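Example record

Each entry pairs one chain with its bound ligand, zinc ion.
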Amino acid sequence: MTAVPAAPACPVCSTPIEQARTGRPARYCGTPCRQAAAPPRPPQRCGRGQRRLLAATPGTLRE
Ligand SMILES: [Zn+2]
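Structure tokens for the complex follow.
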């Protein structure tokens, strides 16, 4: 009977991960591995299009 769940291991380097008692469970053993596993950020576009989200949209705040 092995009821003890396997300790999670870092998917990058297979190092067993020490889980903190509080906070969200870590998926990687450390920041370098997390960054290595994270997909590369998409290139940022020049601000057009996103600014509109912050711009006031006329007519929506009426009551
Ligand atoms: Zn790792």
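The pocket of zinc ion is lined by residues 10, 12-13, 15, 28-30, 33 (CB under 6 Å).
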